Amino acid sequence: MKQDARYARLSYILSMIIYGTIGLVRRWLPVSSSFLAMSRGLIGVLFLLLYRKVRGQHMDMARLRPHLLPLILSGAIMGFNWVLLFEAYNYTTVAVATLCYYMAPVFLTLISPFLFHEKLTPARCVCILLALVGMVFLSGVLEQQETSPDHVKGILMGLAAAVLYACVVCLSKKAKGPDPMDKTLVQLAASFIVVLPYTLLTGGFSDLSFTPQVVTLLLVAGIVHTGIAYLLYFSSMDRLDAQVIAIYSYLDPVTAVILSCTLLGESLSMFGVIGAFLILSSTFLGDAWDRRRNSATN
To answer: What is the rounded distance in angstroms from the CA atom of residue 70 to the CA atom of residue 263?
Structure first.
């Protein structure tokens, strides 16, 4: 049992670290954001199908069929969520874009009372306020120098990606019956199918040059950051406590911030550091209060 728990913990940690490095791949990959999102969905699907073929596993269509509509819709939204996030990396630093994306739990909290009839408790309101104040610090509007238009554009795209991700989570909650891997395959396939015509219409295929670097990084994004990361994530979720999952989830933004500073030479100002602390603290406190409330009601 202990060995299984240790393996699950290591799998989850590794998946979070992998997610935290996607910004580097985007920064080093000279393709359009839509082409990268489309390729990630396609390669991820092919990798997971191959994995299932080797393992002799098959999709349970009987359990999937009643939930296809929300899964297809969430997959389509997920594709454009990736496009916006990859574009955010183009306009601002990897650290700032990732932290903006990490506002998704805040947007999910704001949506939950309307979709899931969950109460917006005072504790959650405090978390929302902390996160919003953190975004003000992170945006740079409090600093003396003029804020770059590209920086603001990157922040807005990162926040828009966070809103779309919150929508994906909400739609995924509606489909509780199917196997998580089956759900992921449908979502990835939908993301590819929807983003493909968008890529064609917006010229995402223009000036493509399939150099060894481009091909390698596309495979890394599809196989490592999608296929392998999702396998590690889903193989560990059922064997870890919610508290462990909540704590280790912070490895994603922390990894992105560290790599942004060390490998890309990007840096956060003192205001940015304060903003990052407030955003991450808001999510941590929200998780802690939710666990405390759940334990009290059980």
So the answer is: 39
CA distance 96 to 268: 8
- What single DSSP character describes residue 224? I
Tell me the H-state helices in 20-67: 22-28, 33-55, 61-64
> For the segment 197-252, what is each residue's pLDDT rounded down to a tens digit?
999 999 989 878 899 999 999 999 999 999 999 888 877 766 776 666 666 777 88
**Residue 179, phi then psi, degrees to nearest 5:** -65, 140
DSSP code per residue over 121-180: -HHHHHHHHHHHHHHHHHHTTTSSSPPPHHHHHHHHHHHHHHHHHHHHHHHHHH--SS-H
Task: Name the domain count of the chain.
Answer: 1
Contact 285, 126 (CB under 8 A): yes
Q: Which domain holds residue 49?
A: 2-297
Write down how long the chain is: 298
